[in-house]
C-alpha cells in the first residue's frame, strides 16, 4: 500500500514563504499526477496545483498562479513552493495522487493526511 505524507507546514507572517513536500512511501507509487489541494475552515476544498510524472506539465489555481511553484524531485517526491503568502492562504494543505492533470478532487484517489499552513501577523 502506498502512503502520501505531507510536511513543511507552519506558522508564517504575510509575505513569507514556505515549501511543502509530499513524499510517497510504501509500494511503488504509480500515479502519473500529484496535486495539491487546501481546505480552510468554513470553505470547500480548493485545488491549488498539480504536476505530471515527469514534471513536464503543471497547472495552477488562479488564486496562486505566479506565487506558487510545483516541482517533482523524483517519482516519489513533489514540492510546493509558496511565496508571498497571505492570510487567505491559511488552510490544511493536502497532496493527492491521480492519473489526470485536473483540478477535480474526484480524479485523485490517494490522499495524504495534510499539513497546516497558517499565515498571520
Can you describe what's shown?
- The protein has strands at residues 2-7, 10-12, 18-26, 33-39, 46-52, 58-60, 68-74, 77-82, 91-98, 108-111, 115-119.
- The chain has 121 residues and is mainly β.
- Strands 2, 4, 5, 6, 9, 10 and 11 form a 7-stranded mixed beta sheet that branches. Strands 1-3-8-7 form a 4-stranded antiparallel beta sheet, with no helix packed on it.
- The termini are far apart.
Concise synopsis of the structure shown:
This protein is mainly β. It has strands at about 1-5, 10, 20-25, 35-40, 45-50, 60, 70-75, 75-80, 90-100, 110, 115-120. The strands form two sheets. Strands 2, 4, 5, 6, 9, 10 and 11 form a seven-stranded mixed sheet that branches. A four-stranded antiparallel sheet has the order 1-3-8-7, with no helix packed on it.
Major pleated sheet: 7 strands, mixed
Name the helix and strand elements from N-terminus to C-terminus, one letter apiece: EEEEEEEEEEE
Which structural class do the helices and strands define?
mainly beta
What is the distance, rounded to the nearest whole angstrom, between the alpha carbons of the first and last residues?
40 Å
- Binned strand content: over 45%
Work out the helicity level.
under 10%
Q: Which overall shape is indicated by the principal axes computed on the Cα atoms?
A: globular
Q: How many beta-strand elements?
A: 11
